[in-house]
Amino acid sequence: KVWKIRKIRKSLSTQSWSGSFCIIHVYIYRTQILQILIQVSSNL
C-alpha cells in the first residue's frame, strides 16, 4: 500500500512539473510573438 501511495505522489509531482513547464513555455512563446509583432509594426 505504501508503495502505491508513493507511486501516486510521484506521478502527481511529475504532472505538476510538466504543467508549470508548459506555462513557462507558453509565456516565452508569447513574448517571442510580441517581439515579432513589434518588429513587423515598426517595419510598416
What can you see in these coordinates?
The chain is mainly alpha-helical. It has one domain. The chain has 1 helix and no strands. It starts with a helix and ends with a helix. The model has no long low-confidence stretch (mean pLDDT 82).
Report a brief summary of the structure.
The chain is mainly α. It is 95% helix and 0% strand.
Question: Which descriptors apply to this entry?
Answer:
single chain, 44 residues, mainly alpha
Low-confidence stretches: none
Number of helices: 1
Number of strands: 0
Shape: rod-shaped
What fraction of residues sit in β-strands? Answer: under 5%
Q: Biggest sheet: strands, sense, closure?
A: none
How many structural domains can be distinguished in the coordinates?
1
Order of helices and strands: H
Alpha carbon gap, first and last residue? 65 Å
Radius of gyration: 19 Å
- Proportion of helical residues: over 70%
Class computed from helices, strands and strand pairing: mainly alpha
Let me know the average pLDDT.
82
Topology summary:
Elements: H1 2-43
